[in-house]
Amino acid sequence: MSEQFDLLVIGGGPGGYVCAIRAAQLGLKTGCIESRGTLGGTCLNVGCIPSKSLLNLSDMYKKAQKDYNNLGIEVGEVKLNLKKIMMNKSKSVQVLTKGVEFLFKKNKVSYIRGKGVLFSKNDVVVYENGKKTSYKAKNIVIATGSSSSSVPGIEINEKNIISSTGAISLEKVPKSLIVIGGGYIGLEMGSVWSRLGSQVTVIEYLDHIIPGMDSEVSREFQKILTKQGIKFLLNNKVTKVKDENNKVTVEFSDNSSKSKNKIECDKVLVSVGRKPYTEGLNLSKIGINKDNKGRIDVDKEFRTSVKNIFAIGDVIKGPMLAHKAEEEGIAVAEILAGQSGHVNYDVIPGVIYTSPEVAAVGKTEEELKKLNISYKIGKFPFMANSRAKVNNETEGFVKILADSKTDKVLGVHIIGPHSGDMIAEMAIAMEFGASAEDIARTCHAHPTHTEAIKEAALAVEKRPIHF
Are the CB atoms for 36 and 56 separated by under 8 Å? Predict the structure, then answer.
């Protein structure tokens, strides 16, 4: 007899493991199937977590190398030990993946190792090391995540032409690195290797970086990164990448002038987005529909075209963010337990973990214009914030967009120190439908970076105190 579950989750990434834990907390007999060999998915193993470790350590190295002496902290010769940095990164990943295993045991979630394949609306077969085991489930959640996309005709070999997975595991600092794509991941990994000594060039098809972010933030961010030594070739299309004799040649053409150029470098990071990972699940065989981008179609309750099979995270529509997947996982678990699980997609923050960080929640100016919504802007620069000033972190600003009639906060965009943490205040405010005046009248501790948020809220009505 096959073991029977109330819920089987296929995929042990942020969406899948969180869904499994919440379902078990709500009394459902739950199993989670994962093929990687460790839990945590792309995020924990080769994505968010290891990249943030490298971002933090590379930032410390750069500060020790260039900033400390000027601040009165005199250090001797600063040496880079890349092997130790990578060991530190790997240790962090190991501790956190084992932590998820512990949480499974604590919450009585069955951890099933292997690749899960759907054979009917209630049957999943798991393949591992030549063995196959059948399981039955009343409900199934597909949470298999995403994989790196490439440019047509460019083959990622993870040696000299690498994805983000290869970029977190280089054995030595490349003299030159070309990043194809000016989005979150490319700029984060470009920042890491730039700080460690690589000459980084970003080639972006559009005429601006970080597509989808507020254009004013995008322009300011590019200025800051350029000052840090990263070069940008915007409005250019990569046409060919050749890997020969341990050197890579990138050929590209200008979208406007059509002029053709090429650059030689040591490594190329292909960072042009991610695609849903649904291969080998038997989706079409059991009648699960996908859209033209390969994403699984779901309704408001995350149900696929097969009503007891759900899908969450990167395999469905929406931003490919770990925290978005987690919220969806919790929502599905609560729906299955008879509760009213839901996700407010208008209040999902996005963060770029460079230095300074970039964070946003809600609408951009461009989106508000398209929707024909009248809005007011409140801006406050970190150069006028006392905590940022004493910490020598004065780049960037806070920008609040509020409805012209109701004063309701519609979007917040921050470029500056600790903005990834600061954005949470505004996400909570927006979840409760706060007005800019609500933020302006809330007492903020002094001296803190968050005072810049209060001042930006005051600036919505043109009454900031310190600028």
Answer: no
Number of domains observed in the structure of the chain: 3
d(CA 6, CA 29): 5
- Are residues 372 and 414 located together in one domain of the fold? yes
User: pTM of this prediction?
Assistant: 0.96
In a domain, 89, yes or no: yes
Report the range of poorest mean pLDDT among 1-10, 46-55, 191-200, 437-446: 1-10
Is 67 in contact with 392 (CB distance < 8 Å)?
A: yes
For residue 168, give Cα distances in angstroms to 149, 234, 274, 455: 17, 25, 16, 38
| DSSP β-bridge partners for residue 238 | 252
Same domain for 40 and 141, yes or no, is yes
Q: Which residues are catalytic?
A: 446
Of 421, 319, 355, nearest to 188 (Cα)? 355
Question: CA-to-CA distance for 3 and 5, rounded, in angstroms?
Answer: 7
Interhelix angle for 215-227 vs 184-195, to 10°?
20
Regarding whether 316 and 229 lie in a shared domain, the answer is no
Question: Which residues span the domain enclosing 337?
Answer: 3-147+275-343
| DSSP per-residue letters across 395-454 | --EEEEEEETTT-BEEEEEEEETTHHHHHHHHHHHHHTT-BHHHHHTS---SS-TTHHHH
Helix/strand/coil for 61: helix
Residue 246 CA to residue 266 CA, distance in Å, equals 7
Q: Confirm whether 250 is domain-assigned.
A: yes
**pLDDT at 246 (0 to 100):** 87
Closest CA to 40 of 23, 21, 27, 58: 21
Compute the half-sphere exposure of residue 274: CA atoms within 13 Å on the CB side of its CA.
26
The tokens describing 439, both together, are 């933020």
Q: What per-residue confidence (pLDDT) applies to 327?
A: 98
Q: pLDDT, tens digit, for every residue of 45-93? A: 999 999 999 999 999 999 999 999 999 999 999 999 999 999 999 999 9
